[in-house]
């Protein structure tokens, strides 16, 4: 698993790391046994985006402002060190400059410091949440988080659906650019993913990648690897891509009308699709309708379990969740299970040792966190976290038999009891 640029912790970044496999780097699964259930502790938050784990017992929370954005005013972000059990704030950063609003990103670098990209600013903080460095990014648009390459460099880009996205590569010590910014071939909404020193970009109609050229000290577009996933269809853009080492997996029809829930928020008249592209040959690709229902839409990545050869995809707009078994060489996809209605919309957590999959289910105007068996789809437990917003952001594993679940206005610690 790639991620040498990150701190050696169970969960140092969104989705666990740059491949977006959504698995902890270490530690055991929840391992729910007969007679055990899920409990939760919650707190209201100022638009929480994600939690990451540092040294044992360290849990960091990223939040951001939004109300000022409605008035066209700059917004800010904040990082908190929270109590791993009660979720209460132990330390808090000052308000971090941002600008245009979009949920940003946070990660712990292998040098031990915290990095945040929010709005059009990059920030470096120490583990006491004290600012160390700041850099204003070149485009006056929100930047859609970042990845850390194995060489320690930070790569980020603006969120754009009309003009070409622009990649910036930042030095981790100073946050200054290490090379000139580079325009992508097209706009991009999705967050970046990476393996080693290669960055993958899902544009609004194709997926492509850049390799870090150590000699030239810059990113170079791989002109031999690109797939136009839109083609002649009427689909809308894709979201974040999962890299399992052999294939890239993502979903399309990403345009939607989300306010507090994804259910019914689809815009395109077509079903959304799960897309697979071979990392060795972009001509080797497939697409699969997820639910097959019209107005299908998502705002996040699928989940891929390379160990069990299972991929889980969903149609958030139609409350549909399903899984397939895939062939390692690509091609064959065998349906495993499906659930409908099931209000899944968020990033997930998979525990590889137990096959436990943590997802959200929005029903009866409320958020519930659910534990499933990834191979059978069997429900092992669920707990209501109390939030009225359907989560579309980032959970993380915890330090014990627990998970932290962010759903914008609420943070929950879900634990085995």
Helix-strand category? mainly beta
- Tell me the number of strands: 32
Number of helices: 0
Radius of gyration using CA atoms only? 20 Å
**Please, what is the average pLDDT?**
96
What is the CATH superfamily classification?
YVTN repeat-like/Quinoprotein amine dehydrogenase
What percentage of the residues does DSSP assign to strands (E)?
A: 35-45%
Shape: globular
Task: Walk me through the structure.
The chain has a single domain (14-37, 46-350), classed as 7 Propeller (Methylamine Dehydrogenase, Chain H). A hairpin with a 6-residue loop joins strand 20 and strand 21. It has 417 residues and is mainly β. The relative contact order is 0.15. It has no helices and 32 strands. The radius of gyration is 20 Å and the shape is globular. The strands form seven sheets. Strands 1, 2, 3, 4, 5, 30, 31 and 32 form an eight-stranded antiparallel sheet that branches. A four-stranded antiparallel sheet has the order 6-7-8-9, with no helix packed on it. A four-stranded antiparallel sheet has the order 10-11-12-13, with no helix packed on it.
């Amino acid at each position: 698993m790639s991620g040498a640029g990150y701190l050696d912790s169970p969960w140092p970044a969104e989705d666990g790391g740059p491949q977006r496999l959504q698995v902890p780097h270490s530690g055991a699964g929840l391992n729910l046994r007969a007679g055990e259930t899920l409990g939760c502790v919650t707190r209201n938050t100022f638009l929480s985006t994600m939690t990451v784990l540092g040294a044992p017992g360290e849990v960091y929370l990223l939040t951001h402002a939004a109300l000022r954005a409605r008035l066209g005013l700059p917004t800010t972000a904040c990082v908190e060190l929270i109590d791993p059990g009660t979720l209460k704030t132990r330390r808090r950063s000052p308000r971090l400059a941002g600008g245009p609003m979009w949920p940003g990103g946070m990660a712990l670098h292998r040098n031990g410091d915290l990095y945040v990209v929010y709005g059009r600013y990059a920030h470096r903080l120490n583990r006491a949440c004290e600012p160390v460095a700041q850099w204003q990014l070149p485009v006056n648009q929100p930047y859609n988080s970042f990845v850390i390459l194995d060489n320690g460099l930070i790569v980020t880009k603006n969120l754009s659906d009309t003009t070409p996205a622009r990649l910036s590569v930042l030095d981790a010590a100073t946050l200054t650019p290490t090379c000139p910014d580079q325009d992508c071939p097209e706009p991009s909404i999705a967050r970046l993913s990476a393996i080693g020193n290669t960055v993958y970009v899902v544009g609004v109609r194709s997926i492509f990648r850049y390799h870090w050229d150590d000699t030239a000290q810059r990113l170079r577009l791989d002109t031999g690897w690109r797939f136009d996933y839109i083609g002649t269809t009427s689909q809308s853009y894709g979201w974040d891509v999962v890299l399992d080492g052999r294939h890239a997996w993502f979903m399309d029809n990403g345009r939607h009308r989300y306010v507090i829930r994804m259910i019914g928020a689809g815009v395109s008249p077509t079903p959304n699709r799960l897309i697979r592209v071979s990392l060795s040959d972009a001509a080797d690709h497939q697409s699969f309708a997820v639910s097959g229902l019209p107005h299908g839409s998502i705002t996040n990545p699928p989940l891929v379990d390379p160990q069990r050869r299972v991929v889980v995809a969903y149609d958030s707009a139609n409350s549909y969740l399903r899984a397939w078994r895939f062939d390692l060489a690509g091609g064959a996809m065998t349906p495993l299970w499906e659930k409908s209605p099931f209000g899944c919309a968020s990033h997930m957590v998979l525990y590889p040792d137990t096959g436990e999959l943590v997802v959200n289910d929005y029903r009866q105007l409320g958020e519930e966190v659910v534990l499933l068996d990834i191979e059978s789809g069997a429900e092992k437990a669920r707990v209501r976290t109390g939030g009225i917003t359907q989560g579309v952001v980032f959970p993380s594993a915890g330090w014990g038999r627990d998970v932290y679940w962010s759903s914008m206005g609420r943070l929950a610690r879900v634990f085995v009891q």
